Each structure stands twice: as structure tokens, then as C-alpha cells.
Amino acid sequence: MSAPDALLARFEGALGVHAEGWAAWPPRLVAATRHALFGGGKRVRPLLALLAAEAAGADAASALPWAMAVEMLHTYSLIHDDLPAMDDDDERRGRPTCHVAFDEATAILAGDALLTEAFRTLGASAASPAVIVRLVALLGNAAGGGGMVGGQVEDIGGGLETLAALEQMQMRKTGALIGAAAVGGAVSAGAGEQTIEALARYGAALGLLFQLTDDLIDAAQDAERDGNSYLHHLGEAGVGTRRDAVHAQARAAVAPLGARGEALAALADRIARRTA
Known about the structure:
- By secondary structure, the chain is mostly helical.
- 71% of the residues lie in helices and 1% in strands.
- It has a two-stranded antiparallel sheet with strand order 1-2.
- Strand 1 and strand 2 (95-96) form a beta hairpin.
- Helix 2 (27-37) crosses helix 6 (104-123), helix 3 (44-55) runs antiparallel to helix 4 and helix 4 (64-81) runs antiparallel to helix 9 (163-188).
């Protein structure tokens, strides 16, 4: 199994080469798109995709197109989330957000370009037609109205009065794409259905774990927020207990993979312990 840092270096190199293919785009669009896509970040989703491919017994290279597509789609969502009509953020990862660095219209179009480029990347990959079709459907389901976009609509709609409603929103907004990253990595690798199902369970748990940890990190500012926070429903101690339980679920999901699942278990450990 490859070290996470080595996998991410491989990913960054492949993404940089891929972006060189945008030479026919208008230069301002290229600049805005690169500003967002190469602006730092944890790269959890592409790392997850590549680790899942290795856990399925394949070389991580088989999942590089999928990893790039997932990260492009994730970045598009961040560009649009930062817009004045949404979260109205001026800074992300210590840098001006895309609409601040350029302008609102250019930011919207950069997000549009990344969304469509994600699907073009999958279509142009060397995978078999059957795998490409499955990956396109997986990404569309995770990103669309039943997934990330639908979750965003629920989030901006105001306080969610029940824990069940909050969980549904988070499963769509954050969890769907994280879960899909794991499944798509396995599909890219030609994994059997048993392995894909194990990674689907792992990805679902990891998506929830990511959000629970996020809420704990942001406890000071979120404690008085509306119902769109686990802290509102469970309190800080309750969120910590739930995080630990979901962390255990993630590890249990990949335990049947033996040594091939150890890197994924370590990723769950890292997310559960993160402080930023």
C-alpha cells in the first residue's frame, strides 16, 4: 500500500498535467479555475478514491481520472457555496475566494467549467465503457438534487428541527460525495461487489465522521447556531460520543479487507482526531 503523501503527490502531478489541456479555454477562465482547484485543501476525496483502488487490489493509477473528477466537482461546489447568494465568504484556505479574486460572474462560470470538466474527464478515461457509465451515474447521483445540491438546499433553508432531518441533510451535502469517492475508487479498480459494498459502508461512515468532527472543531462558533449543527441537537459531549461510534463503524467496514484496508482505517483515525 502506498503512503498517503505519495498518493497525493501522484494525484497533484496528474491534476497539473490535466489542467495543461485547458489551453483552449479563455485565459481568465483558466486563471479563475486554477485559483480554486489548486488553492490548497485536504484533498480527502481524491485520497479516499486512490486508497479505495489500492484496497481493491489495483494500482492507484486506475482511479486517477475518478479522483480528479471528484475533486473538480467538490471544488465547483466550494466556488458556488462561497458566492454572495450562498454563504457569502471572502476567504477560503487563507486566500481570497474565487468571486473576490476575480468577479462573481467569472466565479460562477469557473464552477460551471469544473462541473462539466469532471464528467468530461470520466468520459475521456481509459476505463471500459461499462465502468465509465457506472462512474458517471455514481457522480451524478452524489452531486445532484438527491445528493450534494439537494443537501445544500436543505442547509440554506434554515434550522433543521430534528436530528433525523439534520442527518439527512448532511448525508446529502457532505456524505454523498465522500461516500461516492470510496465506491468510485473501487469501481475504477474493477473490484467485486462484496468489496464495493464494504467500501460503500466505509464511505458512508466516513462522510458522517467528517461532519461530526467538523462540528466539534467549530464548537465555539457553532454552539449558538440554528439546528444545522450536531451540537444543537446533541451537545458537545454527545457529538464526541457519536463521533467515536461512527469512527468504530468506519474501521469495522474495512476490517474484512485485512491488510488492504489498513490505510483506509488509518484515514478514519486521522479524520476522527483532526483539529483543523
